[in-house]
Specification:
Helix 2 runs antiparallel to helix 3, helix 3 packs antiparallel against helix 6 and helix 19 runs antiparallel to helix 20. The protein contains 21 helices and no strands. It is about 80% helix and about 0% strand. It has a domain of about 100 residues: Serine Threonine Protein Phosphatase 5, Tetratricopeptide repeat, CATH 1.25.40.10. It is mostly helical. It is elongated.
């Protein structure tokens, strides 16, 4: 819903900007010249239109820099009544398109740059800038093309350029770097690359899931949960988003919600040992000992190297009056510290029995 509102706002802003520009006689003359194929003449008309506001441009651009780097609250309090001059951006964009038609590529590129400086959310200008630097490689072109695609879902030319220039590959490269950094617990560096990956490819659940881990590592729990939920929304058939969200909820002591996510994980991947381990812990926290015991039994089958499962099974047997020494010894051998005193007691009892 927020995205729809944003797109509608941009569409309204762009339409108003175009209408404001069309009130100018020089702008209209430029439009007419383009219709007649007189592109050189069009550049002259657009230049006259640009000169009408050029004296105000430097001050406006300075304000834009300050505005863009301010928080939402600061924008309201420090810049009352400020609005983006899309009508000015249109003038540069239109002149740039006219320059393209007479093969003045350098001048066109400069005009697209200025249009973007004036209105950084102008999708047509961003697309043309991206297309103008394709010769320098996709790493130069795709940031502009991707931004144009993000700002205008109905812009077929942006979608086409995105596919034809394999811009999604930039996302894969950024994701690979970010994933490696997150795995190394370099969360801040990983977050930067994962932000970039999502910028290039906003439809990958894996990208959101890993960015959630980066946020979690930086202590930004709300952002992490939002990303895990986004990963689930994009692909509910993969368990990663559910699993990571469950662990985050578990750490916040929201055991019932965590358990619901872990149930989903195990329905998607019944052999995921770590999910059984956390499911068991959450069941214990919710006073569900029988369910926890079932999880520990599965954990032993799937991952016998987990000492806690042997210990928990041993405690169960001990409480039922059964011999649990083999379980405690196994848990102790696997490094589960709570099991060591019990294993020692078993050895002492065995020694006493042998002396009788």
């Amino acid at each position: 819903m927020k995205k729809i509102i944003l797109l509608l706002s941009l569409l309204l802003l762009n339409s108003l900007g175009l209408l404001m520009a069309q009130d100018d006689a020089n702008f209209l003359a430029g439009e007419k010249s383009c219709e007649l194929g007189s592109y050189k003449l069009a550049t002259e008309h657009y230049s006259k239109y640009i000169k009408s506001f050029e004296p105000k441009l430097a001050a406006y651009l300075e304000k834009v820099k300050s505005y863009d780097t301010s928080s939402g609250a600061e924008q309201v309090s420090l810049f009352p009544g400020f609005s983006v001059r899309h009508d000015w951006a249109v003038g540069y964009y239109k002149r740039g398109m006219a320059y393209l038609n007479i093969s003045e590529f350098v001048l066109a590129g400069k005009d697209f740059d200025m249009a973007i400086q004036i209105d950084s959310k102008y999708p047509e200008a961003l697309l043309q800038k991206g297309l103008s630097v394709i010769g320098k490689g996709k790493n130069e072109a795709c940031p502009y093309i991707c931004r144009a695609r993000l700002l205008s879902d109905t812009m077929k030319a942006a979608k086409k350029a995105y596919k034809e220039n394999f811009c999604w590959m930039c996302g894969i490269e950024a994701y690979t770097k970010g994933k490696t950094e997150v795995d190394l617990r370099q969360y801040a560096e990983g977050l930067k690359n994962l932000n970039l990956a999502i910028f290039f490819c906003k439809d990958s659940g894996n990208y959101y899931a890993y960015r959630g881990i980066a946020y979690e590592g930086l202590g930004k729990i709300d952002s992490a949960l939002a990303d895990y939920s986004s990963a689930i929304k994009m692909d509910s058939t993969k368990f990663t988003g559910y699993y990571r969200r469950a662990l985050t909820l578990e750490s916040a002591k929201k055991f019932k919600e965590a358990l619901a996510d872990l149930n989903k994980v195990l329905s998607l991947n019944p052999k995921y040992a770590d999910a059984y381990k956390h499911h068991a812990a959450d069941c214990e926290s919710l006073d569900m000992p029988e369910a926890a015991l079932y999880d520990y039994q599965n954990l032993i089958k799937l991952k016998p190297s987990e000492g806690i499962s042997w210990y928990k099974m041993g405690m169960r047997k001990k409480n039922m009056g059964e011999d649990a020494c083999d379980y405690f010894q196994k848990a102790a051998d696997l490094g589960y510290e709570d099991a060591q005193p019990l294993a020692d007691d078993c050895q002492k009892a065995a020694a006493r029995k042998a002396l009788k």
